[in-house]
Write a structure and sequence with these properties.
With about 350 residues, this protein is α/β, with parallel strands linked by helices. It has three domains: about 140 residues, 3-Layer(aba) Sandwich (Rossmann fold); about 60 residues, Helicase, Ruva Protein, domain 3 (Orthogonal Bundle); about 130 residues, Zinc Finger, Delta Prime, domain 3. Helices cover about 60% and strands about 10% of the residues. α11 packs across α13 and α12 runs antiparallel to α17. Keywords: DNA replication, DNA-directed DNA polymerase, Nucleotidyltransferase, Transferase.
């Protein structure tokens, strides 16, 4: 079946439920909302029983198999939830999930609906036989959190649900406070719905009500650096430092981005298509666009110079004193990121 995005799920659920749903994504709020929508529809369509199975070490896959195949003692429809936190069912689990997918797809009386939740899988895992069977026989809902550019529109839509709105600078301020933490963003928006009447939310309202609950991680730093977003990059690095992130991890992520960027620039110069490079470099969805932006800003010489600078910063992290660098590790990490954000403002080592 075609993969659904979350915004398409509501329209899909106006039809009779499929026999199998797979909700895939890492964002807790989006997963909760998608599964809640399926549960509510199941109740409305007469699925009066519900079972929840959490897969952990020693999980009894045969019991899940029997539960999905056996009808309720009272002949009721049932919703069976299978939670797969690590996305790895193992050999036996993969075989049973694949078999259940085929059986539920051919079971037209819809006495059982199986709802599987799992984190976002990498490309290799999505090519496994069990997952491809789930995708072909069931309905996959792929949950992708809004990126930094999309977050403002996402916040505006959430405010509109409670008859509130805000000007773009206010939404930008809110986005900065909640970035990387959609569940907290949802809670803060609900708080404003309780504190303020319908209508416009002002900057004063926002500053009164909303905490700074942003989460910083190296993957969002990667986006800011490659897309050339200097204010966001600086905010991300300051946040990572404030949260006590290890400089060695931040340096590793930045260096990997630079290595990938060099290979991306080489490939484009040789006439390779972006989609082909994305596969070869194993870029996650969306990252090829960031690489394109960075490749337009940097020459091959500048990219190699950045990699050389990264090697010097690594020596500093290891306790050495490379010439030309100060002893402020986070300051040098900022300089390294600036070489990608705006190479025109940096000098070669």
């Amino acid at each position: 079946m075609p993969t659904l995005r979350q915004e398409q799920l509501g329209l899909h659920l106006q039809q009779p439920l499929a026999g199998l749903y797979v909700v895939m994504g890492d964002e807790p709020l989006l997963a909760l909302e998608a599964t809640d929508a399926i549960r509510q529809t199941a109740r409305q369509q007469g699925y009066s029983e519900r079972e929840v199975w959490s897969v952990e070490r020693g999980f009894d896959w045969q019991a899940l198999w029997q539960s999905c195949r056996n009808q309720s003692l009272f002949g009721n429809r049932k919703l069976v939830e299978c939670r797969l936190p690590n996305g790895k069912p193992g050999k036996e689990g993969g075989q049973i999930l694949a078999a259940l997918a085929g059986e539920l797809a051919s079971n037209h009386d819809r006495s059982c609906c199986l709802l599987i939740t799992l984190p976002r899988l990498d490309k290799a895992s999505q090519e496994t036989a069990w997952f491809r069977q789930l995708q072909q026989q069931g309905q996959l809902i792929s949950l992708t959190p809004p990126d930094h550019r999309q977050l403002i529109d996402w916040l505006a839509q959430r405010l509109a649900r409670q008859q509130q709105h805000a000007k773009r600078p206010v939404l930008q301020c809110l986005a900065d406070k909640v970035e990387g933490n959609l569940l907290a963003a949802h809670q803060e928006i609900q708080k404003m719905g309780l504190l303020f009447p319908a209508g416009e939310i002002t900057l004063d309202n926002l500053q009164t009500a909303v905490l700074n609950v942003a989460r910083y991680d190296v993957f969002k730093l990667s986006e800011a650096m490659l897309t050339g977003d200097r204010p966001r990059m600086l905010r991300m690095l300051a946040g990572l430092q404030g949260e006590g992130e290890a400089p060695v991890l931040v340096h590793w992520a930045m260096t990997e981005d630079i290595r990938q960027l060099i290979r991306f620039i080489q490939g484009r110069q040789q006439g390779q298509a972006v989609a082909q490079l994305a596969r070869e470099l194993r870029l996650w969805q969306g990252k090829e666009r960031w690489m394109e932006q960075a490749a337009r800003r940097l020459s091959m010489e500048q990219a190699y110079a950045s990699l050389h600078y990264a090697a010097q910063v690594e020596k500093l992290i290891k306790g050495l004193r490379p010439p030309g660098l100060n002893q402020n590790i986070w300051g040098e990490l900022t300089q390294l990121a600036m070489r990608i954000v705006n190479p025109a403002l940096t000098l070669s080592v």
